[in-house]
Design a protein that fits this description.
This protein is α+β, with helices and mostly antiparallel strands. It is built from seven helices and nine strands; from the N terminus they run βαβααααββββαβββα.
């Protein structure tokens, strides 16, 4: 299997999906729709984390992002976390953000009426945050499929500012089609949604993770990206957030999709070690007519 980072988007969407399910990773240039989403997210983050009502444009995008990155150190993480909680609720509740997500799918060649999607999630990786117990889950080595996500799932990730390879996250590429000892058998989607949920800030004692020393998993492959670039990859990829010791917070957004035809036909990445129970796809949202 050949695994690489490609910026060449296939004209045929099924070909794109097949290549992703074979392990290929796409890092696409920023487009009009992705930059529009980026600015909207910087806007709502500025409103609620910085407390500054200002219109984000291409002209001040970098300035606003820089202020947000420094905000936790300036005002304390508690204030930043409170503002982040407001942002997370807005991304779930406001149809505008679903429409921005769907516009990104349009730009990438997906037919929105054929796609089920998970709502946008803004992530903040705080300086030194990986050392805190509350962040163990988000910083663990994992596959998204271990959380009862479909083998046909495609992940979208986008930074809200330029990131270096050290700022981003890493893939353990050689393990895409190779089993890794893990605790996914402990994950039950129905129980998770009843007791925890995706937006929880609880400290968790049990969550799916690789049950192996990360040093035994082979080389970590990371990447750099500009604000608004899109990273597309299979939910089956083994990956891990890079530790943030930069002195600044990192802001990104991600969402997940499943194509209806892939669910029906079984077109998917290989399942080499996922033993989780349940089906997260049943709670995904539908096309714009249902938003």
């Amino acid at each position: 299997m050949s695994v690489l980072f490609s910026d060449d988007l296939p004209a045929d969407n099924e070909s794109l999906r097949r290549r992703i399910f074979q392990g290929e990773i796409f890092l696409l240039p920023a487009g009009a729709a992705s930059l529009c989403l980026c600015d909207a997210l910087l806007q709502i983050a500025s409103d609620n984390i910085l407390g500054e009502k200002q219109t984000v444009t291409a002209g001040n995008r970098q300035v606003v992002a820089a202020a947000l990155r420094a905000a936790p150190g300036r005002s304390g993480e508690e204030g930043a976390r409170a503002g982040h909680a407001i942002v997370k609720e807005a991304l779930l509740a406001e149809p505008t953000f679903d429409e921005l997500l769907l516009a990104v799918l349009d730009e990438c060649g997906f037919e929105r009426q054929e796609v089920l999607f998970d709502p946008l999630r803004m992530r903040i990786s705080y300086d030194g945050g990986y050392k805190e117990e509350i962040n163990r889950r988000s910083n663990s080595v994992h596959r998204d499929t271990w959380y009862a996500n479909s083998q046909s799932q495609i992940n979208f990730w986008m930074p809200l500012h330029d990131v270096s390879a050290a700022d981003a996250f890493s893939f353990y590429l050689k393990n895409f089609a190779s089993a890794v000892p893990n605790t996914s058998e402990q994950f039950d989607y129905d129980l998770w949604m009843k007791t925890t949920g995706w937006q929880s800030s609880m400290i968790l004692s049990t969550f799916p993770t690789a049950d192996a020393d990360p040093r035994s998993l082979g080389e970590r492959t990371s990447f750099s990206a500009r604000a608004g670039q899109l990273l597309l990859f299979s939910a089956s990829h083994l990956h891990q957030t890079n530790p943030n010791d930069s002195g600044l917070a990192r802001y990104s957004v991600d969402f997940r999709i499943v194509h209806r035809a892939d669910l029906a036909s079984g077109l998917a990445a290989p399942n080499v070690d996922n033993l989780s129970q349940g089906d997260a796809t049943r709670d995904y949202r539908k096309n714009s007519d249902d938003v």
